[in-house]
Amino acid sequence: MKQPAAFVFDAYGTLFDVHSAAARHADAIGDKWQLLSEIWRTKQLEYTWVRALAGQHCSFWRVTEEGLDYAIAAVGGIDAALRSKLLSAYRELAAYPEVPACLEALKARGAAVSILSNGDPDMLADAVRLAGLTEVIDAVLSVEAVGIFKPSHHVYELATAQFGLSAGEISFQSSNRWDIAGAKSFGFHTVWINRVGRPDEYPDLAADEVLKDLNGLLI
User: Fold this and answer.
1) Positive or negative torsion for Cα 161, 167, 173, 177
2) Please, what is the average pLDDT of the chain?
């Protein structure tokens, strides 16, 4: 593919490490911190899909809270005082190390750079600011503009409308394979950022490229 006119990135898990919140409090949580973080993320996503299918939209912050509550109950033995600390940490997720330089390089090449996320606008604003990406990101697009979570095509349409481009002129990057499947069905050029080496799925909606991190976009 020739250089896309725009690179659109999922936020959570792609640019920002969703497990960094629990990692920050690993000592207080104990040896089950990774299990808690995995359950938290799994339920957070599950709740978005159920809400989208049921036509009962809510804020991403709400499913983040509800996912954490389930994870705490499922793991057990977690100090109740950690709940508020973990939620605060989720608003300060760490960006993956290569993110700032990679996005700056793509922008320097003349491409538009954008985020398209399930996240609430205020959550995304916090993450972008703390990562020092405010001057790099051309647009931060939230599902709140259409009132439904991914993988609804209404969400992906936000990017084509923002830049006045066809789907095929946009490269969409996500660490979530289900998100890649949704974006592929919409018509984006898709790049699966498979940071942890997960097995592939959705063979009829294959990613156009598979990379271990964003650095591969610069090759």
Assistant:
1) positive
2) 97
